[in-house]
Write a structure and sequence with these properties.
The complex is a heterodimer.
Chain A lengths: L2 E10 L2 E10 L5 E5 L6 H9 L6 E6 L2 E2 L10 E4 L11 H11 L4 H14 L15 H14 L4 E5 L7 H15 L5 E6 L2 H7 L2 E6 L2 E7 H6 L4 H6 L6 E8 L2 E3 L5 E3 L11 E6 L4 E2 L8 E13 L2 E8 L2 E8 L9 E6 L5 E3 L5 E3 L1
Parallel strand pairs in A: 3-8, 3-9, 6-7, 7-8
Antiparallel strand pairs in A: 1-2, 1-4, 4-5, 9-10, 11-12, 11-14, 12-13, 14-20, 15-19, 16-17, 16-19, 17-18, 20-21
Helix pairs in contact in A: 2-3, 2-4, 3-4
Chain B lengths: L2 H5 L2 H27 L1 E4 L3 E4 L3 H8 L1 H31 L6 H10 L6 H11 L6 H8 L10 H29 L3 H10 L3 H29 L3 H6 L11 H11 L3 H26 L6
Antiparallel strand pairs in B: 1-2
Helix pairs in contact in B: 2-13, 3-13, 4-8, 4-10, 8-10, 10-13, 12-13
């Protein structure tokens, strides 16, 4: 059940969609492709499925070179962002369709479809036609079709993006459970960092056709390999600034500085890029050792129980994300508190030096 | 001022449409209704005849024959043009520079006026000087559309297929273009054959445009007049005298306004009922 890319490259005309990439997916696990639109998620998925041929490089699947093998020979299934079902089949026939093509005996089809339908709460809907279903039900039908096949590789291309918020949360909770104990490798493409964190597993961060990092989701979030990976895996965007280390102090400007932690003593004295996640900057003091910084408020956004405040220090814009409603007058100076224990430091080549 | 009273103003807003519809549909239709129930003489003298003309028309062999020809013609046209049009649309390129070339080529016959099409085919199919007629005869077929009913039917049908299949192609192509790429990818991943893709994805997704194409081709071919009139004039004999050609003969040739009115109304009702019936049945599943 393993999938490996060896120096895979995909060019279309003069454009490069995927730059030479090595990637070995976690066998039987949940793999997430995280990146913005046009970062190459869908291109990678198509290469994995065999819908597209790479311009150069090799695809290895279960220890075999399948670079030239057509889709049908690969035993993969895929769920798209749009809800794709056969329009004039009912739900049962839709789920059964891959099995019918494989000429599975009718009794087994009935059993397997019944099983998957039960898992996805589709049992009462089996007789309905897709256009009588809600978006969530249509996408569950598409997921069922992918599950029933028992493929080695299941590709999910932003399957929740077209669903409304409530359904998205519900289905996202169910997803990892659906694929448990099935022994298949799942690849899940998403543009939302929070979704990647909620789903766990392993994550590959993508930026403009390059895989910047691949590893355990949690680890990539905590210790991004470089500034790019950190930025891909941050929503709202990560705050960055240049700081200078001088002895046992990091200096941002003449007014803002904080002490160097024990583990960072060995760093040499010069300039670093510091990355600070918005939720480590709070409009309320509280945590001991938080560094107060003074900025001019530009925009405040409230989403339910959360405040996102954009403010300016010198010529740089900062974002703070905090629980609770924190009203600010736009244009006024306000004090924010920086939790420096969570700062991530990058060196001259944007590589991680301390997290 | 009550709410009811002020609402009366709305009539003024509807008025332009009412007047327009009255002048282009209701009043002309009512004159036909008027003729169909009366005997008309010069100097606007009319005698009430009740349903006499309708009974006469419905019992006449001549009407039955031209209606029969009309039904056969329309059935043949639909049986050829719909599958043929869909087949052409399916084999057209979906992407790239050839798409617009194909579309323009397809649209070309639709831009030619009916009587020009009739005149073109009239000359094109002449057995002694026309390219088609001469070629067919040179190949050993005994072909002369001015003398043989079979040849005349063949030419009229070929002409209509040439002129109107493009409409089905364009509508089908529009339907095909609106199918998201992901459907084809899903089918590929399932391992579906190309026939299965046509049968279970493309045709169901084209259903709505095909209903429209079918209705348009039914109405148009059932009302066909100009092209066969210019090509064969309804002949040889009455071989290609379709309902509309016969109607014009009754109304303007013989000046029998009563029977002509009755034929017109029956003609109109047949088209209206068939379209309504077909549309209702075809859209039954789409109700949700």
């Amino acid at each position: 059940m393993s999938l490996e890319f060896k120096q895979i490259e995909k060019r279309v005309g003069a454009e490069t969609h995927i730059y030479a990439t090595d990637l070995k997916l976690e066998d039987g696990g949940f793999n997430i492709l995280l990146g913005t639109t046009l970062s190459g998620k869908t291109s990678l998925l198509h290469l994995m499925a065999g819908l597209d041929r790479p311009t150069s490089g090799e695809v290895w699947f279960n220890g075999k070179n399948v670079t030239r093998a057509p889709v049908q020979a690969r035993n993969v299934s895929m769920v798209h962002q749009q809800f794709i079902n056969y329009p004039n089949f009912n739900v049962f026939e839709n789920i059964a369709s891959p099995l019918r093509i494989q000429r599975t005996p009718a009794a087994e089809i009935g059993r397997r479809v019944g099983e998957v339908a039960e898992l996805l709460n589709l049992t009462p809907l089996l007789e309905r036609s897709p256009n009588e279903l809600s978006g969530g039900q249509q996408q569950r039908t598409a997921l069922a079709r992918a599950l029933v096949k028992d493929s080695d590789l299941v590709l999910l291309d932003e399957p929740l993006a077209n669903l409304d918020f409530k359904l998205r949360e519900e289905l996202r909770d169910q997803l990892p459970k659906m694929f448990e104990n099935r022994g298949c490798t799942v690849v899940y493409a998403t543009s939302e960092p929070n979704e990647a964190l909620l789903l766990g597993g392993h994550t590959a961060t993508l930026h403009e056709g390059r895989v910047t990092q691949f590893g355990k989701t949690e680890k990539i979030y905590r210790r991004p390999k470089d500034l790019r990976s950190a930025q891909v895996f941050a929503d709202p965007p990560m705050n960055t600034a240049t700081v200078t280390k001088q002895g046992d102090t990091f200096i941002l400007n003449e007014r803002i500085s904080w002490p160097v932690a024990e583990s960072q003593r060995s760093l040499s004295d010069h300039a670093y890029t510091v990355g600070i996640r918005p939720h480590h900057i709070s409009p309320a003091s509280g945590r001991a050792g938080a560094v107060p910084i003074l900025g001019e408020v530009l925009i405040t956004e409230f989403s339910g129980s959360e405040s996102i405040v954009h403010f300016q220090i010198e010529d740089r814009t900062w974002v703070s994300q905090a629980q609770g409603i924190h009203p600010f007058e736009i244009g006024t100076k306000a004090e924010f508190f920086l939790d420096t224990s969570h700062c991530i430091y990058f060196g001259a080549g944007n590589e991680l030096v301390s997290a | 001022m009550t709410g009811k009273f002020t609402n009366q103003k709305a009539w003024f807003l509807v008025l332009p449409v009412v007047v327009l519809v009255a002048f282009n549909a209701l009043i002309p239709l009512m004159t036909v209704v008027n003729y169909s129930f009366q005997e008309s003489f010069g100097n606007n003298i009319f005698f009430w005849e009740g349903t006499k003309w309708f009974e006469e028309v419905l019992h006449s062999d001549r009407f039955a024959a031209s209606l029969g020809r009309q039904i056969v013609f329309t059935s043949i046209i639909l049986a050829i043009e719909i599958p043929f049009g869909v087949a052409i649309a399916l084999s057209m390129p979906r992407k790239g520079p050839w798409v617009s070339v194909c579309l323009v080529l397809m649209a070309l016959p639709l831009l030619i006026p009916w009587n020009v099409v009739g005149a073109m085919w009239n000359i094109f199919a002449l057995p002694d000087i026309g390219l088609l007629g001469k070629t067919l005869n040179a190949l050993g077929f005994d072909y002369d559309y001015t003398q043989q009913p079979i040849s005349a039917w063949f030419t009229v049908i070929l002409m209509d297929v040439w002129h109107w299949t493009s409409l089905v192609v364009l509508l089908s192509f529009a339907g095909l273009s609106s199918i998201p790429e992901a459907y084809y990818q899903a089918a590929k991943i399932d391992g579906a054959s190309s026939w299965a893709v046509i049968r279970y994805i493309e045709l169901p997704k084209m259903k709505r445009v095909l209903i429209i194409a079918f209705l348009l081709r039914f109405m148009d071919s059932f009302m066909i007049y100009t092209e066969p009139f210019v090509l064969t004039g309804g002949g040889p004999g009455n071989a290609t005298t379709f309902l509309s050609i016969d109607l014009v003969k009754v109304a303007l040739g013989q000046f029998d306004l009563g029977p002509a009115g009755a034929i017109s109304l029956i003609y109109f009702l047949i088209i209206l009922l068939t379209c309504w019936l077909f549309y209702t049945l075809a859209m039954k599943d789409e109700a949700q």
